[in-house]
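Data availability (excerpt). The following record was deposited with the supplementary files.
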Amino acid sequence: MRFGSHISIRDGYLGAARHATKIGAKAFQYFPKNPRSLSVKKMDRHDASECATYCKEHDLLTIAHTPYATNLVADKDQIGLVIDSLLNDLEIANECGSIGVVVHFGVLKNAANPLEGYQRMIGTLNDVLSRWDGEALILLENNAGKSGPTGTTIEELVQIRQLTEYAGKIGFCLDTCHLFASGVWDGDNWSEVEAKGIELGYFDHLKAVHLNNSAYPTRSMKDRHANIPYGELKIEQVNEFLASTVFGDIPFVLETPHESDFSHGDEIKFLNEMMG
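Predicted structure:
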């Protein structure tokens, strides 16, 4: 399986790709630019193109992740920045040869109309994708529920995709910690979650997995990642998830703590040994 991790681009996009092979990864995720800013970044096209070439030569799959401030339901004073930033992310990801850009499902707090958040999100996606003709996709990620239940269910993600005017430019990224923290997957009901995803066609458009354990119990609604061997999800539950036949040739990316005594390289090695 294609296990990998999130990798810094402090040494450039090509540097990140080289680091991935150094730690035994077959995939990796990166922030296209400063993760704490929505500012548009002037891309080093040569570096990005070399990254794409290197990844193709070394059979690496990559995904990008939008900055933390990216909010698909931002208010009118902020949404222009979000749209320009997301288009910038897509352009960089496309040049790096990445599958797409992961974007968190938007949450609108304290709205008088519960449907307003969904309507804004669809409008933002339509606005961005009407201006985007590259191959990189927007990859909608499920929420953990820390800001409310919006965006935690498979049904919501599938429905939002279907209601946009550009469904073909949208895929999904499944975060296992979020799925567990929200209670959609409690660790023991994977067969039910899998059946629902198959029924709704969710897995047909699943392009990546954020492979994270959870530091808190299921239904905690807390988004705190843990290393695969040390979280609330049991190893046999993670194993059942990974053994599912619904996953194609997609990246499984760790966003877990990485310390000197248990690095991402160590965790990738653990996963490969676990899966035989």
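Summary of structural features: The mean pLDDT is 96.
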